[in-house]
Design brief:
Layout (H helix, E strand, L loop, with lengths): L2 E13 L9 E13 L2 E6 L10 E4 L3 E5 L1 E6 L15 H7 L9 H17 L2 E8 L5 H14 L2 E6 L5 E3 L4 E2 L6 H12 L8 E6 L7 H14 L4 E5 L12 H7 L9 E5 L7 H8 L2 E4 L1 H7 L11 H5 L1 E3 L11 H21 L13 H7 L2 H6 L17 E5 L8 H4 L1 H8 L5 E6 L2 E5 L2 E2 L2 E4 L1 H4 L7 E3 L1 H19 L4 H12 L11
Helix pairs in contact: 1-17, 2-3, 2-16, 4-5, 10-11, 11-14
Length: 510
C-alpha cells in the first residue's frame, strides 16, 4: 500500500452534468490537497494529514493540479520521421510518412514508439489512443506494444491491419492485404489482457472500410468477441480528392458494427454531413479532432467547437502525428479554440459586425475536450479525465510561477493551461499512481527487454531518456539511409495511381 499526498495546490476539478444533455463545469479549489492510494484518488480537501510516516509528500503550493490529458488519436511510432512534414499536405504525408513504416525494422519501431510515448507523457498526456499502423510483421507490433508498456503511459493500443510496401520504385504494394497472422495476433493480444497493470488495453483500428460487408463485419465481430476495448478509424473529409470517402459513421451503423457496447472513435470527420449527428448520439461514438494536422494538411476545419452541442459532447482532441507537430494536448486546445474564434470573427466582420462575446468557444470548453470528453470517448468517463475520489490517479502538476504561467494562474488557472502553458511548465506527471515525470524530468522507461530493444544482455533494464535519444538518432540515421534510396517523384506518381487521385484536383500556387 503506497500513499502520495499532493499538498496545498490549486486543483482544477470538474462538476458533473446535472442532466444527461448538460455539460461539465469547472470548480477551482485553492489550497486543496489530493491523496492518492496506490492507483486511486482517495481523498480531496483542505488540511489532509499524511496517513503514515511513509507517505510521499509533493508540495503543491504555487502549483496547478489537473487530471492527465487524454489524447484520442495518435500514431505513436513515427518519431524518426519528425521534421520532414512541416510544409506538406495530406498526399505528401501519406507517402513520405505513412508508407515509410516499411523502412522500419522492429527495433526502429521500438525506439520510435518509446520516444513517442515519452514525449506524450512529458507534455502531460496520461492516456493515448494509439492508431498503431506500424504492423509490418508480428515482431513490429510486439515491439511497439512492449515500448508502450515500458514507457508507463496508459494506452489503447489499437492494432491496425495496414498496406505494406513490397517495392518503392516503382511502387508495388504487398498483395496479401490481410495475412493470416494479422487477425491471429490481434486475437492473441486481446486475450493476453490485462497488460501492464491494466494500463495498456488492446483496441482495433481499421481503415479497410472498402472491404465487402460480410468480411468487414466478421473482422469487427471477432475483435469484439476477443475483447477489444475500443474501435477507431479515420474519417477523411468527404470533399477531399485524395480519398473521396463517404461517411464511415453511416457505414458502420448500417453494418451493425457501430453500437454503444464498444467505444468507437472517428478521427477528423471534417465537413461531416448533418445526418451523422444523430448516429453519434445514439451509438455514443466520438470524433477526435486534431487541429494541427487538419488545418495544415487540407483535411478541413476542426469540428469540435463548431457550435452543434451534440458534436461537442461527442468530441475530443488528438495529436495525430508527432512527426509533424508537438505532442501537447494543451496546444491542440489552443489551436481549436482560436481557429473557431477566428472563423466566427471573420464571418461577422464580412457583414460589418463584430461579436460582443463568443460563448461556444471558451477556454473551459477547450479544457474539457482534452480531459473529461476524452475520457468519455474512450469509455473511461468513470475512471479518468477528472479529479474525483475513486478515479484513477492520473494527475499532472504545473508550475504556476513559471515565466509563462505566472499571474495567469492566479487569475484563471484554466486559462493559464489553455492559453499560456507549454510542456516546460509541467513538473510532475503521475499515471496509475506512479510518477512518470518528476521535478521536470522524465523517469526511466522500465523493464525494457534487451533483445527487443537491441541493447543486448540477458536482463530487463531501465532506460534513461539520454539513452533513448542516442538510440533514436542511431535509428533515424539508418531509416534515413533507406529512405534516401527512394525516388520520391516516382513514388508520388505511383501512390496517386493506387489511390486514383485526379492530378487536376491538386491545385498549385498558394
Amino acid at each position: 500500500m503506497t500513499f502520495t499526498l499532493l499538498r496545498n495546490g490549486t486543483l482544477i476539478a470538474h462538476t458533473k452534468p446535472s442532466k444527461p444533455d448538460a455539460s461539465y463545469g469547472i470548480k477551482i479549489l485553492r489550497n486543496h490537497s489530493l491523496l492518492l492510494k496506490d492507483d486511486r484518488i482517495v481523498e480531496m480537501g483542505e488540511d489532509i494529514d499524511p496517513p503514515s510516516a511513509a507517505t510521499t509528500i509533493i508540495e503543491c503550493k504555487d502549483k496547478i493540479v489537473i487530471p492527465g490529458f487524454v489524447d484520442t488519436h495518435h500514431h505513436v511510432w513515427q518519431t524518426q520521421l519528425k521534421g520532414r512534414h512541416a510544409d506538406e499536405m495530406l498526399l505528401d504525408y501519406m507517402y513520405t510518412g505513412n508508407l515509410q513504416s516499411s523502412n522500419y525494422t522492429a527495433g526502429d519501431i521500438f525506439w520510435g514508439q518509446l520516444s513517442g510515448c515519452l514525449e506524450a507523457l512529458d507534455a502531460g498526456t496520461t492516456t493515448v489512443v494509439d492508431h498503431a499502423h506500424c504492423t509490418q510483421t508480428p515482431d513490429h507490433a510486439n515491439a511497439a506494444l512492449h515500448a508502450t508498456v515500458s514507457s508507463g503511459i496508459r494506452s489503447f493500443f489499437c492494432y491496425t491491419p495496414i498496406f505494406r510496401v513490397s517495392k518503392y520504385n516503382p511502387l508495388e504494394m504487398n498483395q496479401e492485404l490481410l495475412p493470416d497472422w494479422n487477425m491471429k495476433q490481434l486475437e492473441e493480444l486481446c486475450k493476453s489482457q490485462p497488460i501492464g497493470d491494466d494500463r495498456v488495453r488492446i483496441g482495433f483500428a481499421c481503415d479497410f472500410l472498402f472491404l465487402p460487408k460480410d468480411m468487414l463485419v466478421s473482422m469487427f465481430d471477432k475483435a469484439k468477441e476477443w475483447g477489444a476495448k475500443l474501435f477507431t478509424t479515420h474519417y477523411v473529409n468527404p470533399n477531399s480528392p485524395i480519398f473521396r470517402s463517404s461517411s464511415p459513421i453511416a457505414l458502420l451503423m448500417d453494418y451493425g458494427i457501430l453500437n454503444p457496447s464498444v467505444p468507437t472513435i472517428f478521427s477528423h470527420a471534417n465537413s461531416h454531413p448533418a445526418t451523422d449527428i444523430p448516429l453519434l448520439r445514439s451509438s455514443h461514438a466520438s470524433i477526435s479532432s486534431t487541429p494541427d494536422t487538419e488545418l495544415q494538411m487540407g483535411l478541413g476545419s476542426p469540428v469540435c467547437l463548431s457550435g452543434d452541442p451534440t458534436v461537442y459532447d461527442h468530441s475530443s482532441l488528438g495529436i495525430d502525428c508527432h512527426s509533424n507537430n508537438g505532442a501537447s494536448i494543451a496546444t491542440q486546445m489552443r489551436l481549436a479554440l482560436q481557429y473557431e474564434r477566428g472563423s466566427i470573427n471573420e464571418e461577422q466582420l464580412q457583414s460589418g459586425k463584430n461579436p460582443a462575446r463568443i460563448t461556444r468557444a471558451t477556454v473551459e470548453k477547450a479544457f474539457h475536450l482534452g480531459t473529461v470528453l476524452g475520457a468519455r470517448a474512450v469509455g473511461m468517463e468513470e475512471e479518468i479525465g477528472s479529479l474525483e475520489i475513486g478515479k484513477k490517479a492520473d494527475v499532472v502538476i504545473w508550475d504556476a510561477l513559471s515565466p509563462g504561467m505566472v499571474c495567469a494562474a492566479e487569475h484563471d488557472p484554466v486559462a493559464a493551461i489553455v492559453m499560456h502553458s507549454s510542456p516546460r511548465d509541467i513538473e510532475t506527471v503521475i499515471v496509475n499512481g506512479e510518477v512518470r515525470k518528476g521535478q521536470g524530468t522524465l523517469k526511466p522507461a522500465r523493464r525494457v527487454d534487451p533483445k527487443i530493444s537491441g541493447l543486448g544482455g540477458e536482463k530487463e533494464v531501465e532506460v534513461e531518456w539520454a539513452t533513448v535519444a542516442r538510440e533514436l538518432l542511431r535509428s533515424r540515421e539508418e531509416v534515413q539511409g533507406r529512405i534516401d534510396k527512394i525516388d520520391f517523384g516516382e513514388l508520388r506518381e505511383g501512390y496517386m495511381k493506387v489511390l486514383g487521385v485526379d492530378a487536376e484536383k491538386l491545385v498549385e500556387g498558394f
